[in-house]
Design goal:
The protein has two domains: 2-75, 2-Layer Sandwich (Alpha-Beta Plaits), CATH 3.30.70; 84-156, ACT-like. Chain A, domain 2 (Alpha-Beta Plaits, 2-Layer Sandwich), CATH 3.30.70.1150. Helix content is 28%, strand content 41%. It contains four helices and nine strands. The strands form two sheets. Strands 5, 6, 7, 8 and 9 form a five-stranded antiparallel sheet that branches. Strands 2-3-1-4 form a four-stranded antiparallel sheet, covered by helices on one side. The chain is elongated.
Length: 163
Amino acid sequence: MKRTLIALMEDNPGVLDRVSSLFRCRNFNIESLTVGHSETQGISRMTLVVDCDNEEQAEQVVKQFRKLIEVTKVVEDVTPDRAVHRELALIKVSATMETRSGVIQLVDIFGAQVIDVAATSMTIEITGTEDKLDAFVNLLRPYGIKELARTGRVAMLRGGNGK
């Protein structure tokens, strides 16, 4: 069972190391981790997806996370019905003159963007749910993926559920 957590924390050196150590010491597998600036100066926003075996283990993750001094807030119920989840991917795919139009058709269908074109490759940017990105990547595989970078999940509570 995957659990998505959003945490606001002080933007101090070593905080990310303490978070990863906390999860490593308790044998929790981090599926995805994204960290960046928040709307508040000096506060970072972390979206963490952790794989838990059961609800009790998921509650333990939240309790341990809240023990970190730098953590100012943890949102634990970040389910798809309460939040918006997205991921970003950059994909460099082989694209010859013969295959380029097929790649462009997929880009258009998925609402992606070509952000770089070279003689033998194209670099594509796509955002969406993890399922959408997985489907897009699987359709590009026959063309030959040269390089792939995915951000991992970011999440935000819907409308009235946030601040």
